Description:
Blueprint: E1 2-3, H1 9-18, H2 24-34, H3 49-58, E2 59-60, E3 64-71, E4 77-83, E5 88-96, E6 99-103, E7 107-108, E8 126-127, H4 130-145, E9 151-156, H5 166-177, E10 189-193, H6 197-204, E11 211-215, H7 221-227, H8 230-233, H9 236-250, E12 254-260, H10 268-278, E13 283-289, H11 303-315, E14 320-322, H12 336-345
Parallel strand pairs: 1-2, 6-9, 9-10, 10-11, 11-12, 12-13, 13-14
Antiparallel strand pairs: 3-4, 4-5, 5-6, 7-8
Iron/sulfur cluster binds next to loops.
Amino acid sequence: MRDILDLSLEDLSSYVVENGYKPYKAKQIYSWLYKKRISDPEMMSDLSKELITRLKEDFYFENLKLVTKQVSKDGTTKFLFELVDGNFIESVLMVFDYGYSACISTQVGCNMGCRFCASGLLRKVRDLSVGEILGQVLYIQKYLDLTQERLANIVVMGTGEPFDNYDNLMAALKIINDPLGLEIGARHISISTCGIVPKILQFADESVQYNLAISLHASNDELRSKLMPINKAYPLKELFKALKEYSLKNKRRITLEYLLLDGVNDKETNADELKDLLRGQNAYINLIPYNNVDERDFRSVSERKALDFYDMLKKRGISVTLRQKKGDDIDAACGQLRAKKMKEER
Ligand code: SF4
């Protein structure tokens, strides 16, 4: 049995034709899945009994089982899902003044080893399939359907390095973005990478309008290599050269995510170095207050310090935003909920 969400519209067309049906049946199934968001084939009323039986024999329609849901005072909702093979992943729904945003995972665990990250505490078990990446968005949209609301944005910033699962991610986003699929505009989809240079260059050549975000988190190589081992493979000079190439090809502004770690990367010297790094780049910095992780030594900055660093960057003419802290009263850091569950299982 296969996951029906792994199939593109073209795959579905081949499947129905191979089984003796007209190609338009594929569009009907696709519409039930993504427009009407029905996952019980018995309810797909314009399909014949025979086709429904066939589909039930060949595919499963639900690939995520909800294990836990945590809801924060600010509306942030964290979902822990069990996959068909018993692995766990997390997704988050956040509420912003511009709408609902879903943060999704691309891998079970992560091998990138960023020192501040709860997800990286558990090594990568495997990549998520197309259907498992897409299934998170579909699940959250179905959850919002209950109150007739709509997901406005997708950020691929959960557990896993998205560009380490490039092909599955691109195939999933194609359905998420497809007007016949979940129809979320490309400019409302952001992919956040820790900086795998060859993949950034590959992404620069895709004819897609998704936003690119880089987890920067440090202003010099010494600090970044300490925080993020990937920097040893692709140091800042190489990274920023690739970013320049990306924005020249795509005319798109890049987001540089910068977690504020108390006493680590929030000083005047860091602001000076960031100014030098950003010279000539079509990029802006998004400051993110850190969500503390018990197993990690880093601590979040106070609100005052976050504002001070924001002002330091502003004064240096850097384009900067400061993200509101989300889900403070739940296990907000990416990977925390899964790590807890794994501890319980042991
Ligand atoms: S921050 Fe992202 S890339 Fe780094 S270890 Fe965590 S999940 Fe992996």
